[in-house]
Amino acid sequence: MTKSAFKLSNCYFPLELPSSQEGGTKERHSGDGKTTRASHSLRRIHIDSQVLQSGSALVEMGHTKVICQVTSPVYASSSLLPSSVQLSMDEGTLYCQVNYLSHASYPTARILNASATPLDQSHQQFSSSRINTWRLSRESDLSARLLSALQAAVPLQQYPKCCIRVQVTVLQDDGSVLPACIAAASIALTRACVELYDLVTSCQVALQNGILLADPDLDEEESADALVTLAFLPNWKEVSLLEQSGKLSPAQTNQAIDLCRDGCRTMHRFLRDHLLQKLSESKTKD
Amino acid sequence: MSSNLRLRYEIDSFVVPGDRLGSFFKTTLPGPGTSARKGHLYASTAGRLSLQQQEQQSLITVTPPQEQDFASRRVILVGQIVLAKVDRVSWTQAHVSIFATETGGTLQYPTEAIVRREDIGSTVPVTHTTNTNSNNNNNKTSWQVIEAVRPGDWIVARVLSLGDTQRYMLTLAEPQLGVWYALSAKSGTVMQPKSWNTMVCPETGIEESRKCAKPRS
């Protein structure tokens, strides 16, 4: 099977510097450097599948880039599974792991500058261990959330004593990593011919100065007052993951969840168009 | 029957996992690639929608594009015939690695299994004239593992159970199961099965004891 070369669509485009404006509304960029976007629109999305082996996907949302590889089914006593994963005899197990690629894929300077207290002078010395602990906790957090979002969509009783391994690598983190991971996992599971009840789509919304911003990038995520993430099965109309951090009034929470749901519907359209395009391409090859 | 069938997508069009295909009745049933929930049919894989007519029912299926097969076909299930290679042999069991199954084809990488001594079969050959009931009661001996299989042999076995977390359990206790391919210990050439319990090397003529699989003819 020939491997197709894949290209990152906006790899060479420079990121904007973090702005030092005090107050006022900042223009939101949509990731390709040319257009600005409204508060409720998503960034530019680029999806590519079968990039590594059968059952892989690359998703870019603005500058956030993730690659997902699905291996299924993975049997017992395999080197791909860590010993902590327990296989069940009745049904399968889903094992999700998110990894950051290297030190360049997350904002090192911001982690270092976010010291615990103003009296903490030692952050220069122990910078690498601080980054490592940040990275490990962030990776395990993302893995657990990805697992709970995907578990609703995979019929695991078809895989007794087997495991489906979803491995996501974050190439660049520019905000909204979890929605990109979930979209990549959905595409990769479909391309690996794992049966799914429904495609899982996800969207994130940040609240900043009373305005709800859909698909926040890294600056907006960090300066936001609250962050709401929703993972949604669009055809079954069921929620598989709903998370909120920060402080929101009940009315704002409802609006944020509605905005998330609209974002999920848009993502579903993109995922669906990509899969249909790949199906018609494979048909014309025969 | 065709008036009951109202699908939201045309037959032979492409669908994506989760697309709602329509309602299902007693006459239209979900087939491979679809799932049913609350009276509606949903596609569960990306592929082409098709309709298979059986006598009174029609199955709605979604078939993935050509090189691909469902991942769930590659799962090892109880009762399947598998092809395995013997790694090592002990007094009570033989440790094998499963390389392929009958429905799933070749596995991506082999997985471990064991064949216990009592699952290798009886030492009395089962023929048409043998009265199997009385012979099985009187016959207490079972195969010695080293005389039935040797390390490096390829065997055809059936999955007896899913076993424990590390290995599957296989059985050789049927006439068509057993050693399929073995190399002679002295000369290293491929041996031919001579009878149900011996294989002979064509070069040197030396016979070795194996539990042979009945050749398909």
Automatic annotation (TrEMBL), chain A:
<dbReference type="InterPro" id="IPR001247">
    <property type="entry name" value="ExoRNase_PH_dom1"/>
</dbReference>
<feature type="compositionally biased region" description="Basic and acidic residues">
    <location>
        <begin position="24"/>
        <end position="35"/>
    </location>
</feature>
<dbReference type="GO" id="GO:0034475">
    <property type="term" value="P:U4 snRNA 3'-end processing"/>
</dbReference>
<keyword id="KW-0694">RNA-binding</keyword>
<comment type="similarity">
    <text>Belongs to the RNase PH family.</text>
</comment>
<protein>
    <submittedName>
        <fullName>Exosome complex component MTR3</fullName>
    </submittedName>
</protein>
<dbReference type="GO" id="GO:0003723">
    <property type="term" value="F:RNA binding"/>
</dbReference>
<dbReference type="GO" id="GO:0000176">
    <property type="term" value="C:nuclear exosome (RNase complex)"/>
</dbReference>
<dbReference type="GO" id="GO:0006364">
    <property type="term" value="P:rRNA processing"/>
</dbReference>
<dbReference type="GO" id="GO:0071051">
    <property type="term" value="P:poly(A)-dependent snoRNA 3'-end processing"/>
</dbReference>
<keyword id="KW-0698">rRNA processing</keyword>
<dbReference type="Pfam" id="PF03725">
    <property type="entry name" value="RNase_PH_C"/>
</dbReference>
<feature type="domain" description="Exoribonuclease phosphorolytic">
    <location>
        <begin position="198"/>
        <end position="259"/>
    </location>
</feature>
<dbReference type="Pfam" id="PF01138">
    <property type="entry name" value="RNase_PH"/>
</dbReference>
<keyword id="KW-0539">Nucleus</keyword>
<dbReference type="InterPro" id="IPR027408">
    <property type="entry name" value="PNPase/RNase_PH_dom_sf"/>
</dbReference>
<dbReference type="GO" id="GO:0005730">
    <property type="term" value="C:nucleolus"/>
</dbReference>
<dbReference type="InterPro" id="IPR036345">
    <property type="entry name" value="ExoRNase_PH_dom2_sf"/>
</dbReference>
<feature type="domain" description="Exoribonuclease phosphorolytic">
    <location>
        <begin position="43"/>
        <end position="194"/>
    </location>
</feature>
<dbReference type="InterPro" id="IPR020568">
    <property type="entry name" value="Ribosomal_Su5_D2-typ_SF"/>
</dbReference>
<dbReference type="GO" id="GO:0016075">
    <property type="term" value="P:rRNA catabolic process"/>
</dbReference>
<dbReference type="InterPro" id="IPR015847">
    <property type="entry name" value="ExoRNase_PH_dom2"/>
</dbReference>
TrEMBL record, chain B:
<dbReference type="GO" id="GO:0005730">
    <property type="term" value="C:nucleolus"/>
</dbReference>
<protein>
    <submittedName>
        <fullName>Exosome complex component CSL4</fullName>
    </submittedName>
</protein>
<feature type="domain" description="Exosome complex component N-terminal">
    <location>
        <begin position="14"/>
        <end position="50"/>
    </location>
</feature>
<keyword id="KW-0271">Exosome</keyword>
<dbReference type="Pfam" id="PF14382">
    <property type="entry name" value="ECR1_N"/>
</dbReference>
<dbReference type="GO" id="GO:0000176">
    <property type="term" value="C:nuclear exosome (RNase complex)"/>
</dbReference>
<dbReference type="InterPro" id="IPR025721">
    <property type="entry name" value="Exosome_cplx_N_dom"/>
</dbReference>
<dbReference type="InterPro" id="IPR012340">
    <property type="entry name" value="NA-bd_OB-fold"/>
</dbReference>
<dbReference type="InterPro" id="IPR039771">
    <property type="entry name" value="Csl4"/>
</dbReference>
<dbReference type="GO" id="GO:0006396">
    <property type="term" value="P:RNA processing"/>
</dbReference>
<dbReference type="GO" id="GO:0005737">
    <property type="term" value="C:cytoplasm"/>
</dbReference>
